[in-house]
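User: I'm writing a short report section on ligand binding and want a predicted complex to refer to. Could you take this sequence and NAP and write out the structure as tokens? A short remark afterwards would be nice.
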Amino acid sequence: MAETLKWGILGCGRVARQAVGPGIQRSANGNIVAAGSRSREKARAFAADFGASRAHGSYADLIADPEVEAVYVALPNSMHCAWTIRAAEAGKHVLCEKPLAANAGEATQMAAACRRHGVTLMEAFAHTFHPHNRMARRLIEEGRIGRLQRIAAVHSGGRPPDDDVRLSAELAGGALMDKGCYCINTARYLFAAEPLSVYATAEFGETSRVDERLVATLEFPGGGIAQFETSLTLADNQQYSQGCEIFGERGRLFLPYAYSQVATYRFGREVETALHIFQDDIESPREEKLIFDGVHQWHLQVEYFAARVLAGLPLELPAEDGVANMRVIDAIYDRAGMRMRGA
Ligand SMILES: NC(=O)c1ccc[n+]([C@@H]2O[C@H](COP(=O)([O-])OP(=O)(O)OC[C@H]3O[C@@H](n4cnc5c(N)ncnc54)[C@H](OP(=O)(O)O)[C@@H]3O)[C@@H](O)[C@H]2O)c1
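Assistant: Sure. The structure tokens for the complex follow:
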């Protein structure tokens, strides 16, 4: 069994440079061997910064590179499907950025193509690797807060520049695609089920035509409810609002930094986080705070992916989980009145 996975980076933008590239560099079982960009200069700069020996001036050349074993797709959402399928056809494993595609139909095609070509496909939801999220699910499974009743979450940021991919309808941007998708993923993970129905309302930008603010309610089997707000409308780029409160019939959990370790993403700093446990007994209310040392969640993510691929083992959350998440995104957009995403 090979000891390291040879990665190729498809698209040398923000997340590749700030989060996943550094994650692969830290990993014990992976190396970046090549970078691919629309611009050879940009690919060269990325390759130089991350110790890769080759730089390709097109995505097709990166995929055709025989040394590349796994492709990290860090492209705008509307391009995930086509390039994942092309990578699968070339026999490469794929770690694809979230959300998996522009819609569930595309995500289904991606999962099928990867299955057909015998390669692994995983949606890059790095927060699922943070130990505090694992602990929240464990506490729920152990009955620490009783039967799960409701999740209330927020994941929002400031308005990006007008030409940012997140404000492009053609590139399948929008607040739900950028940030709200994390709230859906966590709710499905904690309820360990798919929602039966959704309700949603959104504000669409007049020029962007994407959802810049969206509120949704998901109803799970047994009456469980998840509600969240997601937006790109906070005051400025310094503002980032996130949190997930989980209500059970005997107590509640609170994860203030449930989705993104923003200080790590932006500045490379690992910061400790907490999981708060409240037992709301009226006579003797208790609060416990579990402290988690800072981790680099993108490092944990790529190391896990490489370990599974190298060992030929299945993923805990396979590509079909990403397809299921996309189905919920589709249902929310339908409900909120947006029917077209992507080219
Ligand atoms: N997991 C996370 O923590 C996280 C965080 C942020 C974003 N994301 C996801 O990562 C993906 C990329 O987001 P990002 O924030 O990194 O975006 P970004 O900085 O705009 O980078 C996207 C890259 O895609 C390539 N690209 C190809 N066609 C493009 C077009 N028409 N317009 C703009 N870029 C184009 C460019 O790479 P080249 O110029 O090199 O070809 C560009 O640098 C999205 O799916 C997003 O949802 C994930």
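A remark for your report: The mean pLDDT is 96. The domain at 127-298+327-336 is CATH 3.30.360.10 (Dihydrodipicolinate Reductase; domain 2).
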